[in-house]
């Protein structure tokens, strides 16, 4: 008898950001029942769970709005106890601003936070000590708006995607310096291979315009060689990819943003998005399925069996069985009066 994908998840919790809530909501991972909500600062975007300190970090990027269309950039990270669902501290990174991407090196107790640039300084990555919750330094990325950030499992190399800059920034985390630029036509989400040799980068940037010859860059995932900082392959998709996630079982997940065609008025409305699944090793497509409107964040369960796809326009989270490629259920965050589902974190139960 096949084991249910829910088996063994009792006590585990899924945390979901509502960007316009602004809240972080918690759901039982076995029953999908809502178990609590924490109100946070305006425009929360991404989440990162630190199992060593057992704390949940939440980045708030703007006072209102989003990248390229906001009323001002925030400077804070909110630290939450996911067990008591209470705020532990609000860490102010000022004068750094626009915190967004979060990547954890639990072994070295380091949290990396991408921040946007200003007139006199490019964007970069702030390094935080997760014990003291205080900044230790900054790594420049030579781009105005590093957005997503990911590190290799060894904690030696980091990759920052830059929406409008034509490259992915590659940084040496031990020396704290920029070491390479992988040329891509703008980039969105990313994930790093289990051996740290490759980064899988969503490209082009959703706002990319056509090239001078009228050709729009092919949509998909660029495979970046970490050693040479160069693109070695492309996994093609039918639509712009926003989030990219790699599961513990080696499946590469891409969230495609789909639009309806409207010849009369130009760009159409959002259509149901698509979750496309590849093998990270063979780079072959394993299948696709329909999800909510505008998938923006993807995470997975520690065993790699379930995927969680947050869709910001429909404000839903689709829970997908990655063995059958079927949606098991959909969490409707908007029904709770908390629109804009975005950041996700899977939190295993306390030992």
From TrEMBL:
Alphabetized InterPro entries for the sequence: Host-pathogen_enzymatic-act, N2O_reductase_N, WD40/YVTN_repeat-like_dom_sf
Record's signal peptide: none
Matching SUPFAM superfamilies: Nitrous oxide reductase, N-terminal domain
Top-level taxon: Bacteria
Name the UniProt record assigns to this protein: Putative surface layer protein
């Amino acid at each position: 008898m096949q084991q249910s994908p829910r088996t063994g998840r009792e006590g585990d919790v899924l945390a979901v950001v509502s960007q316009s809530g602004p809240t972080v909501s918690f759901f039982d991972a076995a029953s999908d029942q809502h178990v609590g909500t924490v109100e946070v600062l305006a425009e929360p975007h991404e989440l990162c769970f630190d199992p060593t300190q057992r704390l949940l970090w939440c980045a708030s990027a703007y006072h209102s709005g989003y990248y390229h269309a906001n009323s001002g950039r925030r400077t804070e990270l909110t630290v939450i106890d996911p067990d008591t669902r209470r705020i532990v501290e609000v860490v102010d990174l000022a004068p750094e601003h626009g915190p967004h991407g979060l990547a954890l090196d639990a072994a070295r107790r380091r949290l990396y936070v991408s921040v946007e640039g200003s007139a006199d300084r490019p964007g970069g990555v702030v390094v935080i000590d997760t014990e003291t919750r205080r900044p230790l330094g900054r790594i420049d990325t030579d781009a105005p708006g590093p957005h997503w950030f990911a590190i290799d499992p060894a904690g030696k190399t980091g990759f920052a995607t830059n929406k409008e800059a034509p490259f992915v920034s590659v940084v040496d985390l031990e020396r704290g310096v920029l070491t390479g630029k992988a040329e891509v036509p703008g980039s969105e989400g990313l994930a790093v291979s289990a051996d740290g040799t490759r980064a899988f980068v969503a490209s082009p940037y959703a706002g990319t315009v056509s090239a001078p010859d009228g050709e729009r860059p092919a949509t998909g995932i660029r495979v970046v060689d970490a050693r040479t900082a160069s693109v070695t392959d492309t996994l093609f998709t039918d639509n712009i990819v926003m989030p990219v996630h790699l599961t513990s079982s080696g499946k590469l997940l891409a969230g495609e943003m789909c639009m309806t065609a409207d010849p009369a008025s130009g760009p159409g409305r959002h259509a149901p998005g698509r979750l496309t699944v590849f093998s990270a090793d063979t780079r072959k497509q394993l299948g696709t399925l329909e999800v909510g409107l505008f998938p923006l964040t993807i995470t997975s369960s520690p065993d790699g069996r379930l995927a969680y796809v947050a869709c910001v326009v429909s404000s839903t989270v689709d829970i997908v069985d990655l063995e059958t490629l079927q949606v098991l259920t959909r969490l409707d965050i908007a029904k709770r009066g908390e629109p804009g589902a975005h950041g996700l974190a899977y939190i295993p139960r306390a030992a």
